[in-house]
Design a protein that fits this description.
20 strands, 2 domains, Jelly Rolls, homotetramer, hydrolase activity, acting on carbon-nitrogen (but not peptide) bonds, in linear amides (chains A, B, C, D), six-stranded mixed beta sheet, alpha+beta, FmdA_AmdA (chains A, B, C, D), FmdA_AmdA domain-containing protein (chains A, B, C, D), FormamaseFmdA (chains A, B, C, D), 25% strand
């Protein structure tokens, strides 16, 4: 009996562009994107993936690549992969596709990643009203650990995971998506509650032929034109899973995905070496290329048995995830709180998004007292293994959200100190030249800890 | 040297009403509520507390007490306690008060609690549009474990914590609270996004003399009248901590509270044997009477050193919490996801509250397939040690929230099963008479698992 | 339905001597010691217990009480408790008695304990050849935490547990014990491998009427004389459980005890606030009085179904334990190793006891470099939540044992430092007068850190 | 700046024999085995390694390869690797070499391993008197998980680690080893306490030219002859680390190794996908080929600063290990106990080896009641992530050892069941043909669960 070495179903050649890969990538959801391969249940297979920008971001000192990125040409994902049972019969609409993540990691020879904030005129982020400029931090990996020359004094093990994993939607589901997202796009003003400056962020990204990549379907053909005009962007998580950004979906986890079309058509991508809950800076995980080793199972009729539609049609479901015992664990946490009162002092009604924004801002400000700039901490909280919780959602008018940070990721004790306890001198940081920079006319951000 | 047996600074006699206790309780925030005692830093002291309703809810079969509760007469808290340093000098505005939770638990002889959902006309809850009727489950404690005759087949260790802990506000801060909450109360319609039926929930609870209890200040006196008209309700968490409902604030944790008035005036109450993140049913933890053993420290000038105001005044701060290594840990979790598309199919823009509501509804529906009614699961998810996370808050238009449930709290395997794995018979539940009941003309909810 | 407040079946009055307690204690194992009470399966009941010396050791500066203790008058345990099923039918030989530890802790008003090393002429300990003198450290409790004026700079949460829990032996089993232990006592020289100085330690403690306490059986009567001459000492763990000193047997754990006589006759005592694996100093846990809240079940015929005799008779079995999810967890550990080469350089063959002795000695020496005396660290490793592992038991000639210490219990970073990392100044310790003392003519041990 | 892709300093070609590898391997400890490469502190480098037998054991149905293995030709390790600081100055005797394990795993394309018991006439093991025949189980890896066709119903994540890591001894230390091990070999009878049948196990493996591999030193040369006659076997762990078999030495751990010769000469090998504490079956981990990604640091003078000699010379030291937060964690454990009374009923004096043997035997017998043969469980307990603890080492005459097994590794509930709880049917196992076999004339072991 041969050992079950994973079969490579989607190889990536890092020297090639996303559209030049042998197994063609895609960056849209559509039922008619043809599968690139087929796997059997129980089989271990390997899927490689480019980083979410397909190599547009460089291991460099400048954030100019972040500032000027074309956000229509991103989120390249690997697949779709057709899944069949041991008799060769494909997964069918109404089944549940079980995907177990047996292993994952960076691609050999490409052990680095980046965390960035977009310019508020080009993408923005959760705190774009506070941090309007493009910044970038590079992370290098030492096995399971990551460190950044831009954020010295921090090192942590990654809870590595794919940011995006999902099945293909049916046409019916795709139409639902396009309809409801068009409504929010067209009817957006009333939704603008987080902060006025958010108006520069797109409310939704509707189908667009610009930058569209559809796997085996050749660009410019009539089929391509038709699909490109219908296919959903991959940015939000939806009923099919997709860009869920669940940071604990690491080794040993399982995903139970609803199947909407024959074969399930599993796609995955947007690998994260590590991410904080919320991925607040938007380009916020430690983004990297990588690989997954997966094993699938099919639960026949599982959608009806286990999922309950929550909406007008049977398609309004969500996947289920199972987290196992193998992730890094931390025992001490410092926890920051936010309530749904915004920075102007205005009261919002049980708004967890506002409360979480406040918790993140509180944490950034606190940590910046330990020798860091706020930009550094915004990047850090976006990508380190911090936990964002909804603590209270009923005590009107305040939602309470919390952000818990494992203290062990810092090389100094970041807890508040009683004046009576003698402590050692604050550690003097000696960072490299700070790449985490504003571009153009804006001055280079200095690390306050460095100049002190 | 004598062992440091905790000094009892607030005793509770469970046979007395909240307003009859020897150390008078209060249920409002106001700087002029006089301290009931004084503690020194480093001293271990014990604070006892009534359950948040002060005994209004009974260990009984009927939810009639929940349905008819007077919500103006609740949230009785113990204190205020004045804190001084080892030289007898009081904590001062601008200091940080460090409160360490050395131990806590139920009051001896009162080892039980309850979880309930309010009637939508009287309090409601996060899912009141789905669960409009009053229900109640009683929990009995076996040491660190809780079980409920109303929700058979579930037993879990509590991460016991005080739902409410905070310092007294200054008049300036109190005025800020009253102003901003009045605005949301008066200007409420535009805030109503969660669901239309929410309109029956109060948007904010403004100061009111009705049901007001002010410690040593005698009801009906002019001083009482003045303070009662100004004093803030204790329902929401705010800058002073208060009703934060942080479910991990258990043994070994620390709270760093801002000090707004001389002496700090620490108050605490609303003990929870256990709570899920969000406390979704509103009366949602396992509510009980209890005790805390606390130790305080003062960080002089700590507000300026460690907290950053986030708003128009230096008072717009939030406490910091520190979680230690001694809480129950679970290694396997089943995770439900929600996106910010509501039950009608409408798309909301990055709204974590809507996304969390969907995640909770998804979990309730899933678990109800294992022999439970949905009402039972709503109560369970409100009080068991489940984790509510903000997983994605940037991938417009969908916020992604997750609810993670430790699988070990069930006596059956609740994971989805592949059709190919032979499993044992679904466990037949034999619950007691189900007390978790609709009142009035509504029929008693049957446990579907029982009749199957 | 009444809440299940634990019924107090064994009360302790700390102002009384062990032989004066209302529910009479015992300090021997014998089938004819009569039960003090009866409990039903499913019932929650409370058992209180004196510390293992019954109050002989004082919260004082001197170790004279340790030096001069009468070791024949110790190990007072509470019970026996007869266990019956819901029909009132007693547990029977061949059953398994399931004992769940629902809660436990120190007795209110007695929140302190002690760790000690005996004089080598009176008890000794694992390292008595290195540490021949009596020493004592007092520990005070702050809720779940313990600290000692004698070992400043250390504070940790206790994994509190009963050191001793067991069922009564049958006469047949008792005879087996007495026979085999008499053989080792009489035939002892060849067993003396650990170290020559060990010869001052008793090889076994055979039945003796001296200091014997037998519960309800009055001293001096013929029955007492007979039983006292037969009854086994309680020092070693044996087939009935007994003094197992399993340090993780805390809240939420279960013990599956074999039943040898009708009613099972459960006894328990020797409460430990905390203990390290091995309890190396012999009086080595944080010894205290305390209480247990227990719940029993009976597995009829469970001995035959679950336990396999390992010896000449069906009685040669051992209990099984189940550890739950509620103990304190630590995420970083410093691990010391020992091999089975003793301090003289002599090679022993796969001897885990010698290897563990080396590991403990290595740890003591290492930690003493951080401002402590070796006596302090010997006491600490005996009682803090450190883990003693048998890592390798097959690679002849060396057994490898390890001792893992959670780094978080120290207020300084105890890891080895690279010369290149700038570190803060070594913390200056300001201990109280050091009670951890040699008696008689030996000088008081100074804490090196204090005088530095 | 280039990302720090690990430099490959020891490559392995699995199609070649150990003595044919490009970077020559060795299987002895000697200061004069020349380094195969040099690394700088801070550099990430990759070391590949054969399995400990160098490919002698096959992925096959038969245990004949185990039965007939030549144990003089084993334990091939990679290195030595010379370590220098950033100025190129080598590690010196008296320094501490810090080795951080950044990552590790099986070699790509070779994702399988084996666990075996040797024949008692050829190697034996901890329980060779109970299990005298050669058996073998093959394990296949699915990413971080392992499963075995020979032990169906079990699957667990590996805490992967190198069984062997160490520095080269100086001649002085080597002489100490040879002298003391010769003494135990020559003076062995009195050491034979575990069990009489152990006499067939070698007491020590003294230097021997047979099967000796010495890296770059060519076999048959005078230098080879001299070194081969002096060089220590690699089986036991010793002062230099070596074959410590510390099962938690996984990703994120650090080893602090004493340096005895210039350059430190680090060697490593004997990769384990997973191992139980004690590695009881001797060939007991899941043995495999693999790779390590390492990073070194040098603490100048660290031996004197941090290690304390425990013996006649300054060389009698042991390494220190640091375990990090990234290993798999389990929350429920079933714990088996053993006391130092052997299977014949004979009492031993505080003998942890005997106690652990009893604990392991108890566990094997217990687990065999769940559809397994005892041979299967002996193999399982040798390689699954179970914890072997020294619980009590002072309560004469009984040492108490415990073996804790994480319940989650089984696909059935292995806890004892109360007769009153209805449980599902015992799972029917359908193993593959059982390879776990006695060879020669002995019958194939049947899995009792399979034939039931």
């Amino acid at each position: 009996m041969a050992p079950p070495t994973p079969r490579l179903v989607v190889p990536i050649d890092l020297k090639k562009k996303p559209w030049e890969q042998k197994s063609p990538l895609h960056n849209r959801w559509h039922p008619q994107i043809p599968p690139v391969d087929e796997v059997k249940v129980g089989e271990i297979f390997r899927v490689e993936m480019v980083d979410w920008t397909g190599g547009a971001i460089k291991d460099s000192d400048s954030a100019i690549d972040i500032k000027s990125i074309d956000l229509s040409r991103v989120h390249y994902i690997s697949g779709p992969i057709r899944v069949v049972d041991s008799d060769g019969i494909a997964a069918k609409p109404g089944d549940l596709l079980v995907v177990e993540i047996c292993n994952l990691g960076p691609l050999p020879g490409d052990e680095w990643g980046y965390t960035a904030t977009f310019d508020r005129e080009n993408g923005g982020g959760f705190l774009t009203d506070h941090f309007p400029c493009a910044t970038k931090a590079i992370w290098y990996f030492e096995g399971i650990y990551a460190y950044s020359p831009q954020i010295p004094g921090v090192r942590f093990p990654g809870i590595t995971h794919p940011g995006l994993i999902g099945t293909a939607p049916s046409m019916e589901l795709l139409n639902i998506w396009n309809k409801r997202e068009r409504e929010v796009e067209e009817n957006g003003i009333e939704s603008l509650k987080l902060c006025e400056v958010l108006h520069t962020r797109p409310l939704a990204s509707l189908p667009s032929t610009k930058g569209c990549l559809l796997g085996k379907i050749q660009e410019g053909t009539p089929t391509w034109e038709k699909i490109a005009r219908e296919a959903a962007r991959t940015i939000p998580g939806r009923e099919n899973g997709g860009n869920c950004d669940i940071k604990n979906l690491s080794r040993g986890s399982k995903v139970y995905l609803p199947v909407f079309i024959e074969g399930a058509n599993l796609s995955t991508g947007d690998m994260h070496f590590s991410q904080g809950d919320g991925e607040v800076s938007f380009c916020g995980a430690i983004e990297m290329s990588g690989f997954l080793e997966l094993k699938c199972d099919i639960i026949r009729g599982g959608m009806r048995e286990y999922l309950t539609p929550m909406g007008p049609t049977p398609l309004h479901v969500n996947p289920i995830f199972e987290i196992g015992p193998v992730e890094p664990r931390f025992s001490e946490w410092l926890v920051f709180e936010g309530i749904s009162v915004d920075e102007s002092g205005k009261q919002h009604y049980l708004d967890a998004s506002v409360a979480y924004k406040r918790a993140v801002l509180n944490a950034i400000d606190y940590l910046s007292k330990f020798g860091y700039s706020k930009e550094q901490m915004y990047l850090l909280l976006s990508c380190c293994p911090c936990e964002g919780r909804i603590s209270g959602i009923v005590d009107s008018p305040n939602a309470v959200a919390t952000l818990a940070i494992p203290t062990a990721i810092f090389d100094q004790d970041i807890r508040p100190k009683s004046n009576k306890v003698p402590v050692g001198p604050r550690i003097v940081r000696k960072p490299d030249v700070l790449k985490c920079s504003y571009d153009g006319n804006l001055p280079i951000t200095k690390n306050p800890g460095a100049s002190a």
